[in-house]
Amino acid sequence: MIDAALELSRERGLDGWTIRDLAQALKVWPNTIAYHVGDREAILDAVVERVVAMMPNPPVDLGWQDWFRAFLFPGRDIVGRYVGVARRLCRDGATVPSAFPIMDRGIGLLAAAGFGDRAPLAYATLLNSAMLLVALDDDRALAGHGRGDAAIALRSAPAPPGAGAGWATMQPWLRGWAEDPDASRAALYRYTIECLLAGLEADLRTGAGRA
Questions:
Q1: What is the pLDDT of residue 146?
Q2: Which has more pLDDT, 159 or 81?
Q3: Which residues contact 99 (CB under 8 A, 6 or more apart)?
Q4: Residue 196's pLDDT is what?
Q5: How many CA atoms lie within 13 A of 33 on its CB side?
Q6: Assuming Cys at both sites, which of 42, 141, 198, 207 could form a disulfide with 38, CB separation 3.0 to 4.6 Å?
Q7: Average pLDDT, stretch 79-106?
Q8: Burial 121-140 (b: 16+ CB within 10 A, else e)
Q9: In this model, does residue 70 exceed pLDDT 70?
Q10: Residue pair 181/151 in contact by the 8 Å Cβ criterion
Q11: How many Å separate Cα 35 from the centre of its chain?
Q12: CA atoms within 13 A on the CB side of 134
């Protein structure tokens, strides 16, 4: 039953199917699903649980930065296949049981690296930032916006009065987004993660983030 819900979520997004759709896919009555699994929220929780279980939990012998690269870079592609999962992870990620071993290892590595009691905060900063970027892509898809629509519109917009180097520098970047939006979104995701890792490393050295 959860396998069928997972497949529907891959095809239509987490919120793109109903219990009736699931029952039709399984060739059972909708009441049968309620009896065996529960309401739709329970099924969605199970789908999110399955998706998180697909995410890697890299080995502890990696340094903390490489561990998060090995976790978050492939994690984007996995979660991105199931529209709507990223937003639920931003909301409920800490309560998803299949995330517990990943949280334990990631926070443990951060604590051992010197973050101490700030390790959970550093972990949440990385994970929430990553999932919010995936959720933003999901929102654009659900709204019917093409992946390069915003870049195309901005490229055709007239330069503001007194536009200088910033506007000119932006044009090649916008061209890349218009011509290959998928690669551009992947590059933005990786750049964001790398900047966060660099910022956390600086915080580790200086202690600037200590409250």
A1: 66
A2: 81
A3: 52, 89, 93
A4: 98
A5: 24
A6: 42
A7: 93
A8: bbbebbbebbbebbbebbeb
A9: yes
A10: yes
A11: 32
A12: 26
Contacts of 207 (CB under 8 A, 6+ apart): none
Summary mean pLDDT of the chain: 90
Residue 170 has pLDDT above 90, yes or no: no
SS (H, E, C) 133-191: HHHHHHHHHHCCCCCCHHHHHHHHCCCCCCCCHHHHHHHHHHHHHHHCHHHHHHHHHHH
101 pLDDT above the threshold of 90: yes
Query: What tokens appear for 41 in the block?
Result: 């929220």
Kindly give, in sequence order, each residue whose CB lies less than 8 Å from that of residue 141, ignoring residues fewer than 6 positions away. Answer: 13, 83, 147
- Of 34 and 159, more confident: 159
**Domains of the chain, first to last:** 1-54 (1.10.10.60), 58-144+180-206 (1.10.357)
pLDDT of residue 26: 87
Greatest alpha-carbon span in the chain:
66
CB 130 within 8 Å of CB 122: no
